[in-house]
Specification:
By secondary structure, this protein is an alpha+beta fold. The chain is about 15% helix and about 30% strand. The chain contains one helix and two strands. It has one helix at about 15-20, and strands at about 25-30, 35-45. It has a two-stranded antiparallel ribbon with strand order 1-2. It is globular, with a radius of gyration of 13 Å.
Length: about 50
Amino acid sequence: MKTSQDGRVTIPQRLRKQFGFHAGTEVEFVELGGQLERLIKIYTFLFCAV
């Protein structure tokens, strides 16, 4: 993955499908001992038209 000029990171499609990342999914980057250790899925917002 590469960061964009404004600091955005694109998660590859294969990983988004495998782990259920959708538009609105909140994620957390976890740093341990000076290293980025994990990207954690927090929750997903599901938007429905009524």
